[in-house]
Design brief:
Blueprint: H1 12-24, H2 26-33, H3 36-56, H4 63-77, H5 83-93, H6 100-107, H7 109-118, H8 121-144, E1 154-155, H9 159-184, H10 192-216, H11 218-222, E2 226-227, H12 231-236, H13 249-252, H14 254-276, H15 283-304, H16 320-330, H17 337-356
Parallel strand pairs: 1-2
Helix pairs in contact: 1-3, 1-6, 2-3, 2-15, 3-4, 3-7, 3-8, 3-9, 4-8, 8-9, 9-10, 10-14, 10-15, 14-15, 14-17, 15-16, 15-17
C-alpha cells in the first residue's frame, strides 16, 4: 500500500504518486498508461485543477470568499508568488475538508507550484493555460449559481451557454491533451491539418465526457441549486427548474434527457474518430483515450434505461468491477480499428434503441 501522509517537504514522487492516486480515482489508471514523458505535466495539471475544484466546491465557505481564493490560486499558477495566499488556503479551506486526501492536496500547493515552475517552458505554458481555463469554468459556476444553502435553483439560459460551459470544464482538456501528445510524441500527427482536426475532435471528446457527467449528476446538482439543463429546453416541455425535484420529474423530463443524450453521442462519435486516428503503434495513448470513451458510453447506456435519472439515490454509475472488466477487455483490441469501432458502434446502437423506444 502507498503511504498517503505527506513527507515533511512534499516532493515530485509523492505529488505524482501517492497523492495523485488518492485524489484522482479512475483518472490515475489512465495517467499510468500514458507515455512516461507526459505523466508529470498532465498529472500536475490534474492536481492543480483538483485543488482549485476543491476550493470552488467547499460549501462551508461563502461563494464570494471561494471565488477570491480561486482567483488567487489562478494568479499563482500563472507566476504571481503569494505565500500569504497559500497560507490562507491552508488555514481557510484545508481545515474544512472531511477527506484527508483533499486536505493534504491543499497543503501541498506550495511544492506543486514549485514543480510547475521547474517544468520546461512549453509544458509550463500548457499547464498554466489549461488550469486557467478550467478555473474559468469554476468561476462561471460560482458567479452563475446561488449559494448551495439558499434553497434557490438557477438554470443555464440555453444550449450555447451549456456548450460554452462544457468547453470550459472539459472541452479544453481535449485541446490540452492533444497539444501534450504532439509535444511528447514527435511525428504523432502528419501535418498541421491533421493536428488541427485532432484538436477539434479533442475538444468534442472532452465535451462528450462532460455531457455525460452533467446528465449523470443532474439530480445531485439540482439539490445544491445548479440546473445545467437549459431554461429554453425546459420551457419547450412546460417545465421549470424547481419542478425537477418532484417525484415524477424523471418521467416528465425524459424527452429532454433523450435529446441531450443524442448530443452526447454525437460528441462521442468525434471522440472515437480521434482515438482511431492515432497511430496503431501509440498503444498507451490509444488506451488512455479508449477507456474514458467506453466508460462514458456504458454510463450513457445506464442513463438511457434509468427511469429515475433525476433521483440522486439512483444515479447511473458503473460499478468498479465493471470498470475493471472494461479496462481488461480493451487491451486486446487497442490496435485494431475495425474491432474498436465495432465495439463502440454496438454500444451506441444499444443506447439509440433505448432512446427510440421513448
Amino acid at each position: 500500500m502507498h503511504d498517503r501522509s505527506p513527507p515533511a517537504a512534499p516532493n515530485r514522487a509523492f505529488l505524482c504518486g501517492p497523492l495523485l492516486k488518492s485524489v484522482s480515482r479512475s483518472f490515475y489508471l489512465t495517467l499510468r498508461v500514458l507515455p512516461a514523458r507526459m505523466r508529470t505535466p498532465v498529472g500536475l495539471a490534474y492536481l492543480l485543477a483538483r485543488a482549485a475544484d476543491t476550493i470552488a466546491d467547499t460549501p462551508l465557505i461563502a461563494p464570494p470568499q471561494r471565488l477570491a481564493l480561486l482567483l488567487s490560486l489562478r494568479s499563482q499558477v500563472n507566476g504571481q508568488q503569494d505565500d500569504a495566499a497559500l497560507a490562507r488556503l491552508a488555514s481557510e479551506v484545508a481545515k474544512q475538508q472531511t477527506q484527508s486526501d483533499e486536505k493534504t492536496l491543499l497543503e501541498s500547493l506550495g511544492p506543486a507550484l514549485t514543480m510547475l515552475a521547474q517544468l520546461g517552458e512549453p509544458d509550463r505554458a500548457a499547464v498554466r493555460n489549461i488550469v486557467t481555463t478550467l478555473t474559468e469554468g469554476m468561476e462561471f459556476d460560482l458567479r452563475t449559481f446561488p449559494d448551495e444553502r439558499s434553497g434557490e435553483i438557477i438554470a443555464l439560459r440555453d444550449m450555447p451557454q451549456l456548450d460554452h460551459y462544457i468547453y470550459l470544464v472539459a472541452g479544453c482538456v481535449g485541446e490540452f491533451w492533444t497539444t501534450m501528445s504532439r509535444a511528447h510524441q514527435p511525428g504523432l500527427f502528419a501535418g498541421h491539418e491533421d493536428f488541427r482536426l485532432a484538436v477539434l475532435r479533442g475538444v468534442r471528446f472532452g465535451k462528450a465526457l462532460q455531457m455525460t457527467n452533467v446528465l449523470r449528476d443532474c439530480g445531485k446538482d439540482l439539490r445544491i441549486g445548479r440546473c445545467y439543463l437549459p431554461q429554453t429546453l425546459l420551457a419547450e416541455r412546460g417545465l421549470r427548474p424547481g419542478e425537477l425535484l418532484r417525484p415524477d420529474a424523471s418521467e416528465r423530463a425524459r424527452a429532454l434527457l433523450c435529446d441531450l443524450l443524442r448530443v452526447a453521442l454525437d460528441h462521442f462519435r468525434a471522440a472515437i474518430d480521434y482515438t482511431l486516428a492515432l497511430p496503431r503503434t501509440a498503444v498507451r495513448l490509444r488506451l488512455a483515450c479508449l477507456w474514458p470513451i467506453l466508460i462514458g458510453l456504458h454510463t450513457l447506456l445506464l442513463l438511457a434505461g434509468n427511469d429515475a435519472w433525476l433521483d440522486p439515490e439512483k444515479a447511473s454509475r458503473i460499478p468498479r468491477s465493471q470498470v475493471y472488466r472494461i479496462l481488461a477487455g480493451s487491451a486486446l483490441q487497442v490496435s485494431c480499428n475495425t474491432s474498436l469501432r465495432a465495439r463502440a458502434n454496438r454500444l451506441i446502437a444499444q443506447i439509440e434503441r433505448q432512446l427510440d423506444s421513448v
